[in-house]
Prior knowledge:
Elements: H1 3-41, E1 43-46, E2 48-53, E3 61-71, E4 78-83, E5 89-92, E6 108-119, E7 122-136, E8 144-159, H2 166-171, E9 183-186, E10 213-219, E11 226-231, H3 235-239, E12 243-246, E13 249-254, E14 261-263, E15 272-275, E16 278-280, E17 290-293, E18 300-303, E19 324-329, E20 343-348, E21 358-361, E22 366-370, H4 373-376, E23 377-382, E24 387-392, H5 396-419
Parallel strand pairs: 4-9, 5-8, 17-22, 18-21
Antiparallel strand pairs: 1-11, 2-3, 3-4, 3-7, 5-9, 6-7, 7-8, 10-11, 10-23, 12-24, 13-14, 15-16, 15-19, 19-20, 23-24
Amino acid sequence: MNDLTYQRQFTLGNSLARKFLFTFLQVLVLGSLLLISSAKATIEVPLYENVVDDTTDPLTTKIAYGIYVKVGAGGTPELFQFDTGNGSFEAGYASNAPSQNQFWGAVTPVSTNVITNSFGPNTLYSTTVSADLTLSDSSGSNLVSIPSVNVAQTFDAEGGHIYTNWNQALSNGAPPLLGTYYGDFGADLEAGSPANTPSNQQLFSALGQIPGLVGFGISLSGTKPTLTLAFTNDQIYINSFTNLANLQSGDGGTFPGTGLPTYTEHNLTPPSFSVNGNIVSNINGGSAISGVFDTGGLGFQIPSSSNLPSGLVDSNGNITSGNEFSVNFSGATNVGGTNYSDFQLNFTTGTNEGVNLVTTSDETDHLNYGPAIFDYYNVFYNLQNGTVGFSGVPEPSTYALFGLSALALVIAFRRRRRVF
Length: 420
């Protein structure tokens, strides 16, 4: 073989290598663009973390989360508590508020009957109106529109989270709930009205009434707490949740407008919990107690149990700091013909209420799990197939590794070009 032939073959080989590498990079970029495009099909609504005074609790403060909502056509955005433990939307209203302090837009009266709703230490008194809602952000952007939602127009309230006269605060343009919120935006999966309420007056979470919705995800980790709304074409996001548990079925009711099924208020029933591998069974060996992940709640409640070594529980009934806590779930069954494996959710106990505080309870009916899980896992409520899914929150290093890999390919490609 002469030098010319060798040089041609070498050049041809390198040319094919360049073409292969260029094609590979094109596929990589195209795949990334498709992934980004698909991810944009979901709608992300920012949630806002607030440290608020809690006069009903000895720790005096708690972490809560807010969401901006425009109530009624022409309404201005105000911050409402985002509450997965409440199944209706109570928005504060003062008929005597001056126009500059009135955030309501146009609404349609539904019923003047006074309805009473109690959650936590609060009791709210409302009438019912129908309003178009717009989920927004702190800048007032229109992110999601939800037509014709029954809203509890709350004219009075009392309880441990109401710091001042409800009506007077609203008249002055001040938030009356926890000194921070203009009402409570319920995101629970059960109807928020008594069973005997006429169907046209019933209250439901606005989320289940979003057209085309499959479900919604919540992540409270990091600096960007987020509500993610997923629609029928968002399979990449939906399929990212591989640990699935069944939601507890409700009474057969459905959300207005969408026909999505409702579920029970306390919609999850883990068979057991563990602390450092010690199984915490339910009280007196009874059946599992249902509970709810509650963004408006406090510590993570587990049943009192003789299985817990005494040294793990302090004088206030809280699990001491630095212990490995696990929620043991049964995998979802018969989801599109698939049965999922059992799994655990884990975090280390501490003293931060709403983040890592785990407390024991003698409750035999239901438990409140607080918002802690949302800090450690992305959680997705699939209203169509009746499951709740969990995925770990990606570490920043995961994104960094992807970026470095792409950069390495680009550098390698450029170096090859210099050789050629």
